[in-house]
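Reviewer comment 2.1 asked that we show a complete input and output for one of the modelled complexes. We chose the 4'-deoxy-4'-aminopyridoxal-5'-phosphate case, as it is the one discussed in the main text.
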Amino acid sequence: MINFNAGPAALPLEVLQQASEAVIDYNRSGLSILEIPHRGKLFDDILEESKVLVKELCGLGDDYDVLWLQGGGRLQFAMIPMNFLAENATAGYVDSGHWSTEAMEYAAYYGKVKTLSTSKEYNYTQLPNWPSLKGEDLSYVHFTSNNTIYGSQWPEIPKSEIPLISDMSSDIFSCRRDYTNCALFYAVAQKNLGAVGNTLVAIRKDMTERIVRSVPPMLSFKEQVAKKSVLNTAPVFPIYVSLLMLRWIIDKGIDAIAQDTNTKASLLYNEIDRNTLFTGIVKKEDRSKMNVVFLGKDKKMEQQFLEFCEENDVTGIAGHRSVGAFRVSLYNAISVANVQTLISLMQDFEKNYQ
Ligand code: PMP
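Response of the prediction step:
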């Protein structure tokens, strides 16, 4: 089965094999990875290597800490304002779709929220303009690098004097990025980086000095940094799966991954633009290379195409319930050949459709 789901998403077969071997016997320790203690050499080594590899991939120096936290993307929506947004202060949010909006709603529990720009009036079928931050008095600026539901993506991470925070959940490690433009970035693991259960957070050290309120240790970036991600019982297995993914990414090489990302996206968008039955939704310049969102000719045809794909062992292409039609996610485990298979199905379906 080819799995184009948006997350939890496809993982490379090698990673699945290594993960399943570790469930029986982790590294010939005689213990399952599900049984090893979260404090002790076996897990310390996993954590340490995972952090080194994240830093290597992102070009981060000693001025950043890498954390694995729980609670998914939404806990970051809350933890960020909880730590960095005082009640009378303002945080700026760039609103490019569902996840940006939800992050803003969470921030409003803690302080003032300013929408710096939005593409809501276009139903998020394009990116908003990047805001000018001159003269703004903001605790931080938050943006979503890739809009998983609406299928748009920022081409780069802008520079900013105000601490920039990015939700990179759906495009981390898909291409080279200027990660050091961010004071903090985070990504849930279940798309490009492993299984569900852990979230990557990279935080510049000076940010821990900007914490504005006292929060329980589990929710404090300062405490999590001090306890090196093992404040509580860390989710050993998902972190190990992320380590396997990181090794896989490093082994393949980020430039080769970026090249594949470009090839996969351009093949699929070309077919959508050519095929008489499908239409892209997002403005061409803003199209995401990770989540390709498009419509069919009509509802009946859309349903028939979904069924045709399932019959041919292709799954996970139904669109998000708020946008509809189709969404094809092209994360790292999806190969160019997988995309070619989908394109052949689109072509066969077009030939036989009446
Ligand atoms: N941010 C982005 C960009 C997402 O795509 C998602 C959905 N996986 C989330 C945040 C929310 O993640 P979670 O379901 O782990 O809270």
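The two ends are 27 Å apart (CA to CA). We note this here for comparison with the apo prediction described in Section 3.2.
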